[in-house]
Design goal:
Elements lengths: L1 E3 L2 E3 L6 H9 L4 H20 L7 H15 L8 E6 L2 E7 L3 H5 L5 E3 L4 E3 L6 H17 L10 E4 L9 E4 L3 H4 L2 E11 L6 E7 L10 E3 L1 E4 L6 H13 L3 H4 L3 E12 L2 E14 L12 E8 H10 L7 H11 L10 H7 L7
Parallel strand pairs: 3-6, 9-14
Antiparallel strand pairs: 1-2, 3-4, 5-6, 7-8, 9-10, 9-12, 10-11, 10-15, 13-14
Length: about 350
């Protein structure tokens, strides 16, 4: 008898004395091998937490998977596609269709779609026309949190912009918004500590929530690296010389329904190892406090609480996977990884 992974494994035919035992007790050798195989499967399930009796590890994996699936939940029957020149750009709530129907010189509407008027033939004319409409809607209270920041609108990241849109209206149009998130590692990575921020309570979005040390939206005309360096100083007082050492680590994305709007985010991820004696200092008034959390505590916060700003959950999960806090022994590991990039991005 050989042992594989500490478990008995039979191959070939039984030895003579084994044949006598099997014959004596009326045991069929083929059935005996099947029984051993099933025992092995059951023992492996117990070790990995995938048996019917849910282990703490299984429960944690399920909680993380449910968190990831939160960023995929949507009912597109409640929305109407938004186009320009046959390019799919976003999703507009059906309940807001009448707003667009009231400005036919800017938007062409039917039961299947909303499109920018074909008479608006270039990015400048489209931007001006849409901006005038949005300013009127903002005065009517339809677009809260006006930012005076422009987002580029395009069918994919590398494509030329079709027009530019006030940031506060991105969710109304359901366009893809781009952002930059930085994972600030506190000192030696072996210490497994991550800097986090507590958002100011007067923020229009997610007041008082836990946030990344540094994060910012990708406004028109500026690169992800430039946004990262700018936000490093404004949000955490990280000087440019240190911020330039941040390492780009890929992207995560989400495509979900949130508060009656479609939220589509593509987030560029960066890691930065900060000196042991570094203390963050907010410059723009958007952060209430800073603190360090262990990787394991961050994992627990994602799995067990709603304290972390919505899209930060995905970036932090990606970070924990890349740094080995989550590994293939975690139940639903591959499903969690696949869910970090739920939007079909080109």
């Amino acid at each position: 008898m050989k042992r594989i992974n500490g478990l008995p494994h039979y191959s070939g035919q039984p030895r003579p004395f084994q044949q006598c035992i099997f014959h004596l007790f009326g045991i069929n050798f083929g059935k005996f091998k099947i029984i051993l195989f099933l025992i092995k499967i059951k023992m492996n399930e117990t070790l990995t937490g995938s048996s019917d009796v849910k282990s703490p590890l299984h429960q944690r994996g399920m909680a993380l998977l449910q968190r990831v699936r939160q960023f995929q939940q949507k009912n597109l029957k409640n929305f109407i596609p938004f186009y320009c020149e046959r390019q799919a750009l976003g999703w507009i709530p059906l309940e807001c269709l009448s707003w667009f129907q009231q400005v036919p010189e800017v938007f062409e509407c039917n039961e299947q779609s909303i499109s920018l008027h074909p008479g608006l033939q270039n990015p400048d004319s489209r931007t001006r026309a849409v901006a005038e409409v949005l300013q009127e809607w903002e005065s009517l209270g339809r677009i809260p949190g006006w930012r005076d920041e422009w987002y580029r609108v395009s069918s994919r990241y590398a494509a030329e912009p079709v027009f530019f849109l006030e940031r506060a209206a991105a969710s109304l149009f359901g366009i893809t918004s781009y952002g930059v998130h930085l994972n600030g590692i506190a000192g030696d990575p072996e210490n497994k500590l991550l800097w986090l921020a507590r958002r100011a309570k007067d923020r229009p979005q997610y007041p008082g929530a836990m946030d990344h040390l540094v994060a910012g939206g990708l406004t028109a005309g500026i690169s992800p690296d430039q946004v990262m360096i700018r936000e490093c100083f404004e949000e955490a007082g990280i000087p440019e010389q240190l911020a330039c050492k941040a390492r780009p680590c890929g992207q995560v994305s989400l495509f979900m329904e949130y508060r009656g709007r479609i939220k589509r985010d593509l987030l560029f991820c960066y890691d930065l190892i900060l000196p042991e004696d570094f203390v963050p200092c907010n410059k723009d008034g958007e952060v209430e406090s800073f603190f360090k959390k262990s990787f394991s505590k961050v994992e627990a916060l994602i799995a067990e609480t709603e304290e972390i700003k919505l899209n930060c959950n995905l970036v932090m999960l990606d970070f924990l996977i890349r740094h080995g806090q989550l590994n293939p022994e975690m139940p639903f590991y591959t499903e969690i990884i696949n869910g970090l990039r739920s939007m079909d991005v080109q």
